[in-house]
Amino acid sequence: MTISPKLQSDLAFLDGRREAMTGTLREWCAINSGSTNLDGLKAMHGALAEAFSALGAEPETVTSALRQVVNRDGEKLDQPLGAMLRLVKRPQAPVRVLLTGHMDTVFAADHPFQSETFLDEDTLNAPGAADMKGGLLVMLNALLAVEQSALADQIGYEVVINADEEIGSHGSAPFLTEAAKRAHFACVYEPALADGTLAGARKGSGNFSAVIRGRSAHAGREHHLGRNAIAAAADFIAAIDKLSGAREGLTVNVARVDGGGPENVVPDLAVVRFNVRLEQPDDAAFFESAVKHVISDINDRDGYRAELNGGFTRPPKPMTPKLLAFFEALKATGDELGIGIDWVPTGGCCDGNNIAAAGIPVIDTLGVRGAHIHSAKEYAKLDSLVERAKLSALLLLKIASGELPNPGLFEEAA
Description:
The chain is α+β, with helices and mostly antiparallel strands. It is built from 11 helices and 20 strands. It has a 6-stranded mixed β-sheet with strand order 1-4-8-5-9-18, with helices on both faces.
């Protein structure tokens, strides 16, 4: 199938925009917007609001809920998060899509990776270039192309850009869930792999902290009176590590242990932080039951007290028949543009997990092609800025025209 002359004309809006998009990407990457850098997130929010206002709707600021964290002393604290950016256009249109992305990066204000390098004329190494400031540009330019089209009245959209995705979307997930209920389908602009491969099914994820308290004592004179929290934490770690593989695809990663002090003092506190990934929704209950049993065993010891914090914040995203049909529609769209589209399951997760759990199909790697995200080697392929904007624009316009069925109605259409 070839692209109709009318749609070719609509996509022509994006031709020649690479230079402007590259310039904007460099400006955005120069703003440190680490997840906990509230000043930097505010600056990034302002830059995005200015850019997205070109769509002809007033960007809104939506306050994120507080995030509860456990500090090194085992205390629970409420952490403020950056605000979300929201924009709504034609909410009563017959086709409604949710488009989401995140403005935060994993690079804190004091991280050494703060500047850009051109690895070649097509490859920009910069913080957030792929994950996902490049993706936000793809989203914006795809929507600008839609707005130039006579088909624009047939499709409405809600844009939500959060500021806490890299730390689990604790403050924005409820809002994203509600937004998903207002849409037929969703597009998320996480990066594709360098070769253009997308993420299909995704594992679910949870972050936990176990606070283990013992009893301090002099390590020489009164060692017998102490209760070593680090030693108890070691038993806890060994027990939960054995849960990896207890269900197919279930993994436990102990990432950090806080606690301890001078060598001549029995330590009375340990905080164990760990991440869990799983393929099946039922595995969450299995793991939580198992880890609570380990916590209970420690609490049964004389002089010890253990508490589990955190939980699963991203459910698994399976490859359902409806989602597969959406991917096949994207593949057909890519074929018309000469873009090969493929997808693979991944252990990574994102806001697409939560949106899928709300009941609508979502493709969540529609951003730039890139690699080495979450590292100082992160890069974006600049030729994919226009390429991927055209892919999203054509997908949305074909759905708006009825040439492709509405992904949210695939099952009903079948």
